[in-house]
Amino acid sequence: MARLIKRQTVDRILFLGPATILLALFFLVPVVVDIGLAFTDMGRNLKVTGFTTENVQRMLGGDRRLTHVMLVTLTYVLCTLAIFNVGYGLLLALLTTALPDRAGAFFRAVWFLPRMSPSVVYALLWSWVIAPTDYGLLNQALAAFSLPLLDLKSNAPMLVVILANGFIGASFGMIIFTSAIRAIPQHLFHAARVDGAGGLSLIRHITLPAIRWQVSFVTIYQALSLLVSFEYIWLITNGGPFYDTTVYALYVYRRAFENGQYAYGAALALGLVVVGISVAMILWRFFDMRALLQKPRIEVG
Amino acid sequence: MQLAGEIARPAAQDWPRLVARARVRRRAVTIFLYAVLILGSLPIVVPYLWLFTVALSGRTGAGTTVLWLTLAILMPALVAALVLRIAFEDERRRRRFELALAAVTLIALAFVTGPYLHTDNFRFLWITDIANQLKGESGTGSRYPSVWTAFGNSLFIALTQMVLVVSVSTMAGYYLSRFDFAGRAGYLKGLLVLHAFPAMTLIIPIFLLTYWVGLLDTLTGVILVVVALELPFAIFVMKGFFDAVPWDIEMSGMVDGASRRQAFFMLILPQVKVGMLAIGVFAFLRGWEEYVFVRTLLFKNTNWTMSLYLFWMNEDVMGTDYAMVSAIGVFYVLPSVVLYTICQKYLTQMSIGGIKG
């Protein structure tokens, strides 16, 4: 019996140990460090000389730029989410599932292309397309119709950021909605057709109600990823001009790694950590908890 | 009887007309769908096509002549393919025409764009000091590493990371799927939170941790960080695959005298090969494409990955050869696209909750 128990302990350490250590080191410890760091005065030299609540006070009232950043973030997340991640993703899923399978798969593959390519390549393409000189692809196309040249990066940076992130975001919704639409029993559509329903009312009364669950999943999940990700904005506009496209997550990064205010960055990041954990809790509802936690059926040591 | 006949007869005369009308309607809807999708996809396709044409034909600048020529051939071909699809409902006859169309398009492309094509932009592959030569810094210590250094670093990160993610998550997934232990429910719930939790928010403390333990500016540090961030997702996928394997398989193996570990290695692992392949490919791509953590945690130019190499080649305005930058872009993007396309079948077998955002 003692040997059996010992064997079980060894097995647990062997199988679960590496994962637990890595997860603890890079998830739990950083959260604790971040909380601690928020109350220090760490600056560019990466040394802690004292503890202070200055960062939190500054975050809650003293940072005028933060209000602007919040507004930028709100605009960015809401527009991208509504227009592309949910809206355009749904449109793509509906259009491609209405086509024959092969043709639909082709268009979905095209829309998956931005997600397949490394972020640096994608960002590079964007900055070349919208380049303000007459070398930019957009400006060459405009020049062909003798329209005036555009400088989108300086004049409409928010539009660029929303489009660039939206083109990537649309594919996530597209994939999930497509598999949801495919799972709807065909006889429902046949029955509705017999009752005289046209294409649009099929979508309105059968497809949309059937994928309601997936729509809310995508909305919540993508709202969170838009809120915390800054990779493409960082690469394409670098948050500029000035702070015009600096979203909250990028603001955290710029404060810490550009201005060397690591402690203030950590305090700002706490806001994101809280939002992240809360949304993760909400997302629990979308998983089949009973199946997940079902007890294993054999228990031989 | 008389009455029924009177009603039925005019309806019967209407049938051909109704069929014809339905066919026209169906074709109109199909054309509309294709038109919307083709126009809607142009903003994605054209920039990528541009990248490829510039890489193969550009001379120092990112010219667009070849792009317009290619489009001038491809767009009519696409319309023709669409017309074929509408005109022939018989699959086999259509296939013949489609093959002919594809052949004509390719020949036209070869003739029209052929004279412009050259491989000079890929010279960074064999002239490894090209970046320093172009930027005129060859005399004063080289700032740019060879592209093969960056390629090797990216490959090393991607492969090591892949091996670690697959082995660690397979073992953890198996244990969580098969063994009951005190705190199992809590462990799984915690894992679920981590799975949805955005790790990007922890970049400042992660940076400091690697600095404190001396892993800053080492490939090992980046690998460990990225592995840990991939784990919650990978463990869930693997647990799902193990859950789907009937426990009778292990049971019968153990009745025949296998130990628990033997049963795991010899009976169960072969059943979840697809899952291991899927998360392996995913982890590889994640490592190959990584940018934010690489940029934050690595500084030395001998530690540059492909993403950093491409970024700095494009960023430094002095003496930038945009045609060569696009060639580097193609060189960097091709492995990703090829791997995605080949492994699409396996990648789509992962559960919905696992698709990355």
CATH architectural grouping of the largest domain in chain B: Orthogonal Bundle
- Report the portion of residues of chain A in β strands: under 5%
Helix and strand run of chain A: HHHHHHHHHHHHHHH
Biggest sheet of chain A, open or closed, and with what strands and sense? Answer: none
Estimated helix fraction of chain A: over 70%
**Number of H- or I-type helical stretches of chain B:** 14
Quote the beta fraction of chain B: under 5%
Low-confidence stretches of chain A: none
Q: What is the number of strand segments of chain A?
A: 0
Task: Please specify the SSE layout and strand pairing.
The complex is a heterodimer of chains A (301) and B (357).
Chain A: H1 2-38, H2 54-62, H3 64-98, H4 101-116, H5 119-129, H6 137-144, H7 152-155, H8 157-182, H9 186-194, H10 199-210, H11 212-228, H12 231-236, H13 248-258, H14 262-283, H15 289-293
Helix pairs in contact in A: 1-14, 2-14, 3-4, 3-8, 3-11, 4-8, 8-11, 11-14, 13-14
Chain B: H1 2-57, H2 65-87, H3 91-113, H4 130-134, H5 147-178, H6 184-196, H7 203-212, H8 219-244, H9 247-255, H10 260-268, H11 273-289, H12 292-297, H13 306-315, H14 322-347
Helix pairs in contact in B: 1-2, 1-14, 2-3, 5-8, 5-11, 5-13, 6-8, 8-11, 9-10, 11-14, 13-14
Any overview of this molecule?
The complex is a heterodimer of chains A (301) and B (357). Chain A has a domain at 73-250: MetI-like fold. In chain A, helix 2 packs across helix 14 and helix 3 packs antiparallel against helix 11 (212-228). Chain A is an all-alpha fold. Chain A has 15 helices and no strands. The mean pLDDT of chain A is 85. Helices cover 76% and strands 0% of the residues of chain A. Chain B has 357 residues and is an all-alpha fold. The model of chain B is unreliable at 1-6 and 351-357 (pLDDT under 50). Classes of the chains: A mainly alpha (301), B mainly alpha (357).
